[in-house]
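Input sequence (300 aa), recorded before submission:
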Amino acid sequence: MIIYIEGGKIEVSKVEVGEKEVCEVEVGEKEVSVLLNVLHTDFDYSKLDGIDNVYIPLKYFSNVKYSSILEVLQQKFKIYIYMPTIIKANYRNLFYNNIENTIEKYDIKGFVVSNISNLKLLENVLKNKSHNFKLIANYTFNVFNKYSVDELKSLGISRFTISPEANKNIVMNLCNNSCLHKELIVYGNTPLMNMNYCVNGKSNKCYPTCTSKCNSDNKYYLKDRMNMNFRVLFDNIQTVSTIYNSKITSIIADDFDIDCARIDILDENIDEINFVVEQILKGARLEGKEYTNGNLNREI
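Predicted structure, token format:
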């Protein structure tokens, strides 16, 4: 039924079956997407297997050092540009100065957008209908209910990533009552905080002149009072740091009616990535003290 409120009166009218809004989502085989937070020049990415989509952070498309890696990845998989969660002047300039060349050079299938401002940044790019880019809403949109999903749909989003803070009931509800394709992060170190601040810059006294000391093969961690190590990743483009959970979330993808299982890769090598993908495809999860099922069994 539909409830109309007019002039302080409430009028209820029935809706015939033919008038009922129908939500249809094209159903296909479950895909596997992999986010490569860090690209390594000494990795042979041609050996990756069992993957449909690869998400690659924006900054790598403007660095010729990684061109050969991107060529390899686009030959085997559908590649998407993974947009930053925090964008200031450096990233805006990097985007505007390189996006046209990036689109011409690589077979970009779409963008993983991290907030509303990303859509504004992509406005002119999306006007080019010849490319028909797909938009995927990142976990940072904090999707918890169908109202958020409906709003994303109105913005042109084709798939959304369920919030890693959601418990099992919320995940199940989103899977069963959403008019968009669903993606769930089933493996990876969950980002606990994205900061507009460079932790390393303060400790190394890099300010006011940054010499990119963090742009190396060194790994950095914050240790808490329980001696747990939390990986810290530095952006290298502007003063942004991301702190990751000390434990790796591992969830059985087959437990949920999702369209895409997402795997977030931080420090894993090629063999380890393939092993994770293999377990996901088998309907299994990784077990051990270093793994967690995240918030699935917790109340929000």
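Checked by second reader. The two ends are 31 Å apart (CA to CA).
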